[in-house]
Amino acid sequence: MSLPDIVRDFDRVSPELVQQAGAYQAAILADVNGRRGALHGRIAALRPSMKVAGTAFTVEVRPGDNLMIHAAMSLAKPGDVLVIDGKGDQTAALMGTIMMTACRKLGIAGVVVDAAVRDSLEIEEMGFPVFSVGTNPNGPTKQVGGRIGHPVSVGGVTVHPGDLVVGDADGVVVIERARVAALIPLAEKKVKDEAARIAAIGQGDTAAKWLDAALRTAGVLKEGERL
Questions:
Q1: Which of 29, 78, 178, 213 has the CA that lies 20 to 30 A from 51?
Q2: Is-above-0.85 flag for pTM?
């Protein structure tokens, strides 16, 4: 039995886990997730100061058409992040000030869209986190159907409704709902390990102790040879 085009209910990462995960950089979470889940770099924060953490509310639209985004806004729950498969289209903006203002009022945590937006200065003034492939002053159409609450492909990553979404100045990472809890302690450990390594570098220990072995494995150094 096939799902309807609009799926209204699905399991989400708990607010407690979202809060815990949101304390970490997207880069830390991507690393402990096996260097998987990071969206293509074309999807970036409108401004480097923008950060978001929430649960994925997935939307698929046709290029240049935002009909289903309006429908998704009326169905999303507070704390959701609209994750929009806009097919990477940059010929028209799918969202602007009016829609972003409504999203913020609805409690939507942010927007990640594989397409363009507009009114970037006003969105910056709002302080609402938006991650997109850039901007375009042209407006969208509102004529073509799509899907809500289905898996989508955004920035080369499959995103399921309810997954964890974390974005910052480096980009956006999406982690499968079932994996989030197990990754939190790994993220905590990685932050501590990196802090210790940075402190050691500050004391003059700049050598990468793994480098010679990696160069030998790559065939750059002979066995027993060192840099």
A1: 178
A2: yes
